[in-house]
Amino acid sequence: MAKDKDKQELKPHVVASLDELRPYTAQLLIQVIGADGILQEMSVPVRTIPYPEYLALGASVPDAPLPVSGFDRLQRPIYNDKDAGYIAAQSNVNAERNFRRLRKMLALPIPGETEDEQLEYLRGLDTNMIRQLFIGIRALAEMGEAAIQQQADTFRPNGNGRAMDTVEASDSEG
To answer: Are the CB atoms for 48 and 23 separated by under 8 Å?
Structure first.
């Protein structure tokens, strides 16, 4: 019964103007295991961006080339998307896309003079925090803030969600 009290019922906001749908700054709540081994929540300010810009940031990093495993009877290439090297390369592509999106969406100053320096700084952050930020910015771009809160509830250690270290980052989409 206590769980029901903790849940806030989301009431729909009636949009009166399209200006309400413009990009805004939000607080992204992530949960990570701290250096002390204790689960902690962090509120990270992020800017939303228009969805076409989100997609363009992904498109700025080309897909890994598909390896050719042979040719059919008409001498057309047969591509192998199950190749371990391709899968690893595509995983790196997806990570790079997410780092570029994160750089654009973080509403915090990122050390570095250039985009490359800032991206390198982000690549050096804690893996679990980065993974949670990737999940959060993707959810923010695709679902909106209310849905993020609803999804975040599944990560809470209340018996309903999975432990944080078992959650797979859904960064397979580019």
So the answer is: yes
Closest CA to 106 of 46, 166, 38: 46
Phi, psi of 98, rounded to the nearest 5 degrees: -70, -35
**Are 64 and 90 in contact, with CB atoms under 8 Å apart?**
yes
99 in helix, strand or coil? helix
Identify which of 142, 167, 145 has the alpha carbon closest to the alpha carbon of residue 155.
Answer: 167
- Is residue 164 within 8 Å of 72, Cβ to Cβ? no
For the entire predicted model, the pTM comes to 0.70
Burial of 47 (0-12, 13-18, 19+ CB in 10 A): middle
Alpha-carbon distance 70 to 62, whole Å? Answer: 23
Residue 27, strand partner residues: 45
**Structure tokens of 11?**
């009431």
By the 8 A CB rule, do 143 and 151 touch? yes
Q: How confident is the model at residue 151 (pLDDT cuts 50, 70, 90)?
A: low
pLDDT tens per residue across span 2-47: 445 555 677 887 888 888 777 788 888 888 887 888 888 989 999 9
